[in-house]
Amino acid sequence: MHSPGDARPASLSDRARRWFAAVRPDNLIVYLGFLAVVVFFAVVLQDRGFLTADNFANIARQTAMVSIMAFGMTFVLSAGEIDLSIGSIVALSAMVVAILLRETNLIIAVLGALAVGLVIGLVNGLLTTRLRIPSFLVTLGMLSIVVGLARITTDLEPVPVVDETFAFLFGSGSIGPVPILLVWTAAFLVGFHILLRRTPFGRQVLATGGNKIAAGYSGINTDRIKIAVLMMSAGTAAVAGMLYAGRLQGARYTLGEADLLTVIAATVIGGTSMFGGKGSIVGALFGSLLMGVLNNGLLLMGLTVSEQLVARGVIIIAAVALSLREARA
Amino acid sequence: MRIKRSMVTLLGGVLALSLAAPVMAQDEPIDLDAATVGPTGEPSTAVADIAPLTDEEVAQIAEGGYKAALLWAGAGTWYNALSKGAQERLAELGIEVVAESEADFDPARQQTDVETTMALQPDIILTLPVDPVAGGQAYRPAVEAGTKLVFVDNGIDGYVPGQDYVAIVTGDHFGMGKKAAELMADAIGGAGKIGYIFHDAEYYVTNNRDAYFKAAIEQLYPDIEIVAEQGFADEGSTQEIAAAMIAQNPDLDGIYVAWSAAAQGVIAALREAGKPDVKVVAYDLDATNDLDMAQCGNMYGTSLDWPYLEGKVMADLAAKALLGQEVPPFVTVEAQSMTRDNVAETWSSNVGQEVSPEIAAALEEPCQ
Q1: What is the ipTM of this complex?
Q2: B352 CB near a chain A CB, below 8 Å?
Q3: Cβ-based neighbours of B215, under 8 Å, separated by 6 or more
Q4: A52 to chain B: which residues are within 8 Å by CB?
């Protein structure tokens, strides 16, 4: 008879089953939903250019900035906070990088724009933790401040980006058929996924969001976690700003205006809880891709703006409703 | 099973929506030769035909200690030029600018702007109404207080010139649309296929320019065919629209875009798709697009009005109204065209600025 403590050699099927249980996403329905939308458009748009390598490259490029910001937002929401200032950080960092590229060189420009994002994130974090103001309000106020700064920076005029190396590396280039924006997305995907799922830091983030008091008692410095995640989301917004500047080869104070809601939607559709404690980087990617494919497909179908808006809203609500139903079941 | 069925029903609904796409509304055909008239049918006056203020009149205004408020609909290069013209002329006339604001194209915001500004008791309001219909209510406090209202680009439905407002100063939008069509014809050699990216929202300025462009292409250039049409409301979405257009129409020769900021996305999409020969035509000055033009890229030309001059004229007309003079109720500024050949001169005359060093450098290199 085996006693409980005896080790048994794990069979191959046992290991396979355990591995599958570990990587199986909590909200399978979002991935199925994404697949369903792709199949739907593939059928309806057979001869209208949907199922081409060029179109998928387009979708990859169009979703890159939102995906990267969604990865940052996943950490913020998982920790029980929110960052409403990302859209304006996109604009400010794009302006800063464009101006610095004109006056200095690429390295300084990139570091400068990144620093702008990280500093804003740090301020957000300090105001949230030291002054105990809810991050919703802090980042809301910061949104307004940063928008004003972005406008003042160039007196509302757009700034062209002429540095070709920057433009290639930060958005316009391709390595063979693979757009460089896809490389950026993949890099952030892998990095942030490992950070969330495989490091103590990631576990601490989820613990802080799940139950802040218990997390504090188990020795986690929740203040430092909150500052860190707010810096991460501001940092991803700064990177997104640079990618916009590189892709458009110009910076404008209106960049990123419409992105906040899309980023939050992508993150939440992907399975991250709005109340903290649960997050999925891969889910955020698929949430972003779902919306990117939707935008792309509805456009190729020739719908007017009004029709696209209605269809998009209906499908997003349906996707979230179904994924929540599956999660609860 | 249940999940799959509701998914199918949902997607079926979307499909139904697409198939029930609205039939294109049949507008009355546009008469391209009709003279530009104002909203109540008044004929237009050219700027050159307005009697300038005499030195005594200018001195008289300066003594009046008048105050002005500038309330715009939006912000950007065009508005900067408009405001600069207005502010410079107001300064020359000794009129103090007590407030300047922009409403981000939100009629409710504009109503708030007007109400708040009235607390400063301005004698003049120079403004671009966001919404000619809702604006009737928004500007009511100013009309009742006897403030001299001068509009640019949009009027207000139901307002009477000489009574409720002084005048409307406008670029010739009909003319701009026609000039844009000329530019497109030049760009693609008089024949070919083009995409038409228009502004899908109620906005007098863009609706008129878009309509006149389309009518001019259809009536004057039978060898040019609009093979793809797509509207937009958010200027950030034009990159995706252009990418889709090119994917579905790989033999496009040109693309028309409703305004300059929106054109930037189109140029980026053409660059990504590797289409250096597709020409883009839009409106208004823009540092980024004009650099592309100088570099012999996709941007071929833009049609312009003259916001700097419009600002100055607005200030002059307001001053004349303060002196009790007769003011022409509807003043138009002629449309102009800009291509690579006259980029530098246009920047200098249109907004009083030198072109950026990058544009100047790019203009030195000839096109291949």
Answers
A1: 0.76
A2: no
A3: B29, B30, B32, B177
A4: 247
